Amino acid sequence: MTLKRWLHYARPYARYFVIGPLCMIVEVLGEILLPSLYGSIVNVGIAEQNVWYIAGVCGLMILTAVLMMTGGVGGAYFASKASVNYAADLRRDVYSKIQKFSFANIDRFSTGSLVTRLTNDVTQIMNMINMLMRMCLRAPGMLIGALIMTIAMNPSLAVVLAVSIPLLAVIIVTVVRTGFPRFTRMQAKMDGLNNKIQEDLTNVRVIKSFVREDFEKERFAQANGDLKSTTMRALSVVIMMMPAMMLVMNFTILAVIWFGGQQVIGGTMAVGDLTAFINYVTQILMSLMMLTMVFMNSSRTVASARRISEVLDEKIDLTDERAAHRELSVARGEVEFKNVSFRYYKTSDEKVLDNINLTIRPGETVGIIGSTGCGKTTLVSMIPRLYDVDEGEVLVDGIDVRDYDLVKLRDGVGMVLQKNVLFSGTIEENLRWGDADAPVEAIAEAAKSAQADDFVRKFPEGYQTVLDQGGTNVSGGQKQRLCIARALLKRPKILILDDSTSAVDTATEMRIRAAFRNELRDSTKIVIAQRVTSVMDADKIVVMDEGRITGVGTHAELLASNREYQEIYYSQMDRKEEA
After folding, report:
1. Whole-prediction pTM
2. Alpha carbon distance 64, 155 (integer Å)
3. pLDDT tens for residues 170-203?
4. How far, in Å, CA of 252 to CA of 259, rounded?
5. Rounded distance between C-alpha atoms, residue 365 and residue 378, angstroms
6. Other beta carbons less than 10 A from residue 262's beta carbon
7. What is the C-alpha to C-alpha distance for residues 318 and 388, in angstroms, rounded to an integer?
8. Left (φ > 0), alpha (ψ -120 to 50) or beta: where does 302 sit?
9. How far apart are CA 518 and CA 488, in angstroms?
10. Tens digit of each residue's pLDDT (9 = 90 or more) over 235-246
């Protein structure tokens, strides 16, 4: 966490960072001038009963107040401009960095934590910048100016401040040292609560279907309670700080009134000077309280800045730094796995994929089948580099995928994942993820091929029907078909379908497969399926078991020679006959 990083975001708005504090100087000068004007009214105007003198000084005070208001408004305006722009740029860069994260990078954080860092932590920094700009010159300016005026006015009475200021300094140091770790823990608890909220909202249908509302309420109450107690421990520092500082401040004013009153009685100090002195003392103590609030908030801001730096400093696992073919696109769609091995947990001995060797020729339709957790999805995730191999290499058109530009590689690969994701917006907007510039006719054609056009046109708004976040207002089968249409619109050279027709009936699935053969004749199609019927007509079928390939061949060849395939086939056919 270097100062250079944070100054980088301030540089484009340097004029705001300069003009804002300068405006606050105007307000500070007014604060320093006003008490002496009060004193002169008492000492001269009232003592001599000179109405014109009082009127003249009051006019000067009004002018000073107007200038102070102008400076205060200007300072607040430029402070807001600087802090909001600073936060917007910082949030943009954090979001951009997260977009570059690999799955492994995201796993190192939690989704709720990343949301908190993008929102709460950035906002904390924004508020701190705003506060600093409004107080960085005002508080020290008031402190120094008022100290000079008190010493110049009555050096002996100013000795009172030599006792109170060190006491206030001790309070400030204690507050900062105690508050920093507590605010750090508070932010961590906020991450936990955000994770819980996101998990519950995402899986609300599962919670309701298993009647687990009460259980989840208890878990939420625990997370909420943890945040509440941690927040109270953090805020208790602030709660104790204010009364302690007010106590010191009031005792200081009492001491000034006591000793100053004696000087007034003794004739060594004018009443107006005592009034001005009390005002200056109040300003000194108020400026120290403002500085305390700055230090208190800075402890929380430092915690937030460290959390943001963790995101910005995170080393991205998947980059295209070694890309030797940046302008090269996927042209033919040939895929080859050479001695590929992979572990999710790099310190584990257990391999998710173990010594995989497989060649898929351009335009082939390849089915992949096997038991749950055997590594099918992991295997195809290596093609667009959602993960990188630990050993071996994955080749596309004879070139290692790590040598491609990531954008070029992924442009050539279309994926319909197990978990179908649609975004809030219209159906047309969702389909345009496949091709942002596609004409309406091409969108409808892709939907027809995915067997989605019929049900879309039955909606009152058709392709302009607005989908809820996650596509929760369409059925599972409809969601799958829309995701297939989105991938088809991309017209990729390699199309990966990861159990993407599990929610549609057999007849619809057959029509979708026929569309693949006709519409994507030159594209390589890789179909992961649980149902044997989904891959029976593939050019070849890959059978996987516990991270290894146990057989490759046509349906007939595997049915005759591969034990795992036989078990899957006959178990499904027997259930079908029983049904």
Report:
1. 0.72
2. 27
3. 877 787 777 777 877 887 787 778 777 777 776 7
4. 11
5. 19
6. 12
7. 7
8. alpha
9. 12
10. 777 777 778 877
